[in-house]
């Protein structure tokens, strides 16, 4: 009977065939092998979930930075709009003053 530990360099048996042979001859019942496989699958799923959470956190941080940039831009545009409205009111007042002055010249 050969085991994993019996593997010798240059032997005709491959390491894989020795592992398969050893696995089939181990004392681990099939039920426990199935449970081990389920644990391996669960471990892979947990690792995938952790990686996905990391990726989502990075994406969230990037989106938060973008939101902050857009909020700054929005505030700048709102300030510009307010400045233009103030200018509009000032120009309108100047035009009304000029029109009244023209009317007074025509009347007088």
Secondary-structure map:
Elements: H1 15-25, H2 30-107
Commentary on this structure:
The chain is rod-shaped and about 115 Å long. It has helices at residues 15-25, 30-107. 0% of the residues are buried. It has 108 residues and is mainly alpha-helical. The chain is built from 2 helices and no strands. The longest helix has 78 residues, at 30-107. Mean pLDDT is 83; it is low at 1-13.
Overall geometric form: rod-shaped
Number of DSSP E strands: 0
Multimeric organization: single chain
Termini gap:
127 Å
Q: Number of helical segments? A: 2
Helix share, percent: over 70%
The low-confidence parts are 1-13
User: What pattern of helices and strands is seen along the backbone?
Assistant: HH
> Rounded to an integer, what's the Rg over CA atoms?
40 Å
Supply the key terms.
108 residues; mainly alpha; single chain; 0% strand; 2 helices
Short synopsis of the structure:
This protein is mostly helical and 108 residues long. The protein is built from two helices and no strands.
């Amino acid at each position: 009977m050969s085991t994993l530990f019996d593997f010798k360099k240059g032997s005709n048996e491959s390491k894989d065939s020795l592992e398969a042979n050893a696995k089939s001859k181990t004392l681990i019942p099939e039920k426990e092998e199935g449970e081990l496989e389920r644990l391996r699958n669960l471990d892979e799923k947990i690792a995938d979930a952790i990686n996905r959470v990391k990726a989502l956190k990075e994406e969230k941080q990037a989106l938060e930075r973008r939101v902050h940039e857009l909020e700054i831009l929005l505030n700048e545009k709102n300030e510009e709009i307010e400045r233009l409205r103030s200018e509009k009111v000032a120009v309108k007042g100047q035009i009304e003053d000029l029109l009244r002055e023209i009317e007074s010249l025509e009347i007088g």
